[in-house]
Every structure is written in structure tokens, then in C-alpha cells.
Design goal:
The chain is an alpha+beta fold. Among the domains are: 144-251, Immunoglobulins (Immunoglobulin-like), CATH 2.60.40.10; 294-337. 21% of the residues lie in helices and 32% in strands. It has four helices and 20 strands. The chain has helices at 9-16, 253-281, 295-318, 329-337; strands at 25-26, 30-34, 39-45, 54-58, 66-68, 75-77, 80-85, 90-95, 104-110, 122-131, 137-138, 142-146, 151-157, 165-170, 181-182, 190-192, 195-200, 205-210, 219-226, 241-250. It has a five-stranded antiparallel beta sheet, with no helix packed on it. The chain is elongated, with a radius of gyration of 39 Å. 25% of the residues are buried.
Length: 338
């Protein structure tokens, strides 16, 4: 095989360096909601995908696809909506009014199949579970976000609780707890720091949004309705109607660390192998011929003896001693070369 025959594989190796890493798109691997409730899935992507279309579909993604282009406006398809948040490099998918038929495997994806270096779309799978729950108040049991991003929790209630005060708090939800945010019987958004809540009596839901997430936001929260002294014909204190929501916040730096490990363990060694191959293919030819590949050095050796011999002979001729010459340095050199 000639050196030129070894080079066609180099473009293939270069293509391997462009294979996207698993850090290009990330999010929760599983979500759980209750019948009649809702759940939200937040997907985090890299800066280079900011203006690329994102979508959500149920595997094998033959239909019921909800897709959003560059706009950050909400796009809806039936009970499923998707909204892009290019500021924090996330997009959120919300499934409302859940049924047991919504359980299954879904795909959170970015339309990259038309981009150079990408044969398929960048996606990851999310397993959605739907459990029977109380129709009085329902919603997701688990939500996930990333540091610096945001997440949204939608809680659904019955018609009879339309005028009740709704709230969100971090357990144990003690009185005067400063991490409680509640509605005031209207559709006005109420805010407490980075947490906001707004009631939607038209569709019997209220939505809680946590913004600019930190790792410390991880924990158990309560999505509830204040029912104390509200029930007609009953006196005294009644327990609030609520359900528990587990919030997980993953460090955003985890994406960078995964990509760094991929770079160190795969891309850098591959690049070094390619570089070594290029240097080997284009190496100087004398490196493979041993001592025989230096003809100039071999030619210079005898020429030194001949020059000395010529000068010796010329000196003896001028001195009249052409016969019976004495041994000279040249004779030793000639004998040594032989």
C-alpha cells in the first residue's frame, strides 16, 4: 500500500470528530403526573441550537408532534404546548388534563438532521407515567430544572374551589413561612422573590413558576388550596387540600463536564491518532532507508582521500622524488577505507 492509498480514511476520521456529544440536549428521563393534572418537562440545549426548531412527540413520533421554530411564543397542539426560552437556552413542554392514555415514552428533540455533521436529530427520551389521583386537586409529582433556568408547575382543581385561595410553599410550610406565595382570588400574578403564582379560573388551574433556579431550590414543595373555614355548615379548622411536588435542580455545569470528558476521552485521542498518521504518511523518504539513504555522506568519504593523495603526488613530483615514495597519510587512509 502506497502512502497515497492510506489517506482516503482521513475525511472519515474528521467526520467522527463532529459527532455531537450527549451534552447537546438534556432533561429529565422520567416524569410522573396524575389523572386530570398536568406536568411540565424542561429541556436544556446548547448555545449553537438557539435558533433551531425544537419539538416534542410520542415515540415512535409518527404523529401528534408539537414543534416550535425560532419564536419564543407558545405553540399548542391539543392538550400539549411548547415554549422556547432562548435567554436561558431551554424549552418547556406542558401536558395538560392528563389521562392514563398519556403514559408512555416521549421524545424531546431538536431538528438537526439538515445541519452539516448531523445524520439524525438530537433527542433524548422521557418516560411519562400517569397515576390515578384525587380530582379535587392534582398535578405533577416530580418536576426538574437546571441551574439558571426556570420551571413551571400547573395544578388543576375542581369547580367548587374556583374562588378559593391557592398557594405554593416549601415544606414544612410553617405559618408565616417566607417561601409561601398565594393568590388573592383574581387572575393577577402574585410574586415572592423568584417565585410567582397566577390563578386561571377559566380552565380551573393555577400555575407556579420558579425562575433563576439554584441547586438549593431542590426539595419538596406543596401545591395547595386554603380550605380553612370555607366549607359551608362546618365550623373550626379544616385541613388544606394539597399535594406534594418533588423539585430537582441539576447543575448546569454538568453539561460542560460531560462534554469535557467526551473531549478528553474521545476527541483528543482521535485527533492525536490522526496527526500521527498524517506525519507518518508524509515522513521524509530517507527515514525508511537506514544508512543507505545518505549517499552524500558516502560520496564525501573517498573524495577526502583522493584529494590528499593528489596533493601528495604533486608535491613529490615537484621535489624530484617520484620513485619509491614514502608512506603518507593518504596511504593510511586508503588502506583504512579498504
Amino acid at each position: 500500500m502506497t502512502p497515497g492509498d492510506r489517506r482516503p480514511w482521513l475525511p472519515v476520521a474528521l467526520l467522527l470528530l463532529q459527532v455531537p456529544g450527549c451534552s447537546s440536549l438534556s432533561g429529565p428521563t422520567s416524569m410522573t403526573g396524575t389523572v386530570g393534572g398536568s406536568l411540565s418537562v424542561q429541556c436544556q440545549y446548547e448555545e449553537k441550537f438557539r435558533d433551531i426548531a425544537k419539538y416534542w412527540c410520542k415515540s415512535p413520533c409518527l404523529g401528534d408532534i408539537v414543534k416550535i421554530e425560532k419564536s419564543d411564543k407558545e405553540v399548542r397542539n391539543g392538550r400539549v404546548s411548547i415554549r422556547n426560552h432562548p435567554v436561558n437556552l431551554t424549552f418547556t413542554v406542558t401536558l395538560e388534563n392528563l389521562t392514563e392514555g398519556d403514559a408512555g415514552t416521549y421524545r424531546c428533540g431538536i431538528d438537526t438532521s439538515w445541519l452539516p455533521g448531523y445524520l439524525l436529530d438530537v433527542t433524548f427520551h422521557v418516560v411519562v407515567s400517569v397515576t390515578p389521583g384525587s380530582l379535587s386537586l392534582s398535578g405533577p409529582s416530580t418536576v426538574m430544572g437546571t441551574v439558571g433556568g426556570s420551571l413551571r408547575v400547573q395544578c388543576r382543581y375542581e369547580e367548587k374551589y374556583k374562588t378559593f385561595t391557592k398557594y405554593w410553599c416549601r415544606q414544612p410550610c410553617l405559618p408565616l413561612w417566607n417561601q409561601t406565595v398565594a393568590t388573592r382570588g383574581s387572575e393577577e400574578e402574585m410574586r415572592s422573590g423568584r417565585v410567582s403564582i397566577v390563578d386561571h379560573p377559566g380552565d380551573l388551574t393555577f400555575t407556579v413558576t420558579l425562575e433563576n433556579l439554584t441547586v438549593d431550590d431542590t426539595g419538596k414543595y406543596r401545591c395547595g388550596i386554603a380550605t380553612i373555614l370555607h366549607e359551608e355548615g362546618l365550623h373550626g379548622f379544616l385541613p388544606d387540600l394539597f399535594f406534594q411536588v418533588q423539585v430537582f435542580v441539576s447543575p448546569r455545569s454538568l453539561l460542560g463536564s460531560v462534554h469535557f470528558l467526551l473531549l478528553i476521552l474521545l476527541k483528543v485521542p482521535l485527533f492525536l491518532i490522526m496527526l500521527s498518521a498524517v506525519l507518518w504518511v508524509n515522513r521524509p523518504q530517507w527515514a525508511t532507508c537506514g544508512t543507505q539513504s545518505r549517499p552524500d555522506e558516502d560520496k564525501r568519504r573517498p573524495s577526502l582521500s583522493i584529494d590528499i593523495l593528489s596533493r601528495d603526488t604533486a608535491t613529490q613530483t615537484r621535489g624530484g622524488r617520484t620513485s619509491d615514495p614514502k608512506p603518507s597519510i593518504s596511504s593510511h587512509l586508503i588502506a583504512k577505507n579498504w
